């Protein structure tokens, strides 16, 4: 009986892990579609910028940005909490689309850092989550905005992806992991958003955790598998996307690549080693 239960637990755990690794569908949360095109006012993200300035160490030459979770003071934890309170007290539907986009990306990233800090030390964000077989905290309710309880998945897959339909969003929202695109050293705003997204895409594509061509094997980040539809849905469209951001040497190799594509992802925490 014990052996049967153990086997069942292993199979069940594998199934849960497999489901967790599959990307949620992009489906609009209609409540968040309204915007006010004529509103030119901004949202203040200076508190979030202070946190980034104090604890994010940019990687040299496009390498990985590291966040020093272990060094965050209690005062700055309170500062981050205050920022999240400020953001949740707003109704983003009253702003224009550009301001909304930066609002949701910054909120997502600040919530992620806050979740890790609340559970630090932890080797990986995948160890967090309220449910018994959780693979990370993405389905936990972590914020309430305008009376609406939201998960990180709600923000990414119910708001950012379906409303903006910009695949560069994947280079902006950060999952606190080694293989994730960098947590930006700059808080996003309506003025810098477009340039920062393109810079983030270039930095990621040209780092081996995102694209590595070794001999005849092309290994890319699992992000390109989970969200393949956002990159055109085929290997050819994905390669075209990568070529668009690749430096010259990598670009030429990708242009001529016709083999299989393999995927990899490292969920280790994005903190200094």
Task: Characterise the protein shown here.
The protein has 273 residues and is mainly α. The protein has 2 domains: 25-203, no CATH class; 211-264, no CATH class. It is 43% helix and 10% strand. It has 9 helices and 7 strands, in the order H-H-E-E-H-H-E-E-H-H-E-E-H-H-H-E. The chain has helices at 2-21, 46-55, 74-88, 97-119, 152-164, 193-205, 223-226, 235-245, 248-255, and strands spanning 56-57, 66-67, 141-145, 148-151, 211-214, 217-221, 261-264. The strands form 3 sheets. A 3-stranded mixed beta sheet has the order 5-6-7. Strands 1-2 form a two-stranded antiparallel sheet. A hairpin with a 2-residue loop joins strand 5 (211-214) and strand 6. Helix 3 (74-88) packs antiparallel against helix 4 (97-119). The model is unreliable at 1-20 (pLDDT under 50).
Beta-strand portion reads: 5-15%
> Which stretches are poorly predicted, pLDDT < 50 over at least 5 residues?
1-20
* Helix content estimate: 40-55%
Tell me the major beta sheet: 3 strands, mixed
The helix count comes to 9
Q: Can you tell me the overall shape?
A: globular
Overall pLDDT, averaged? 92
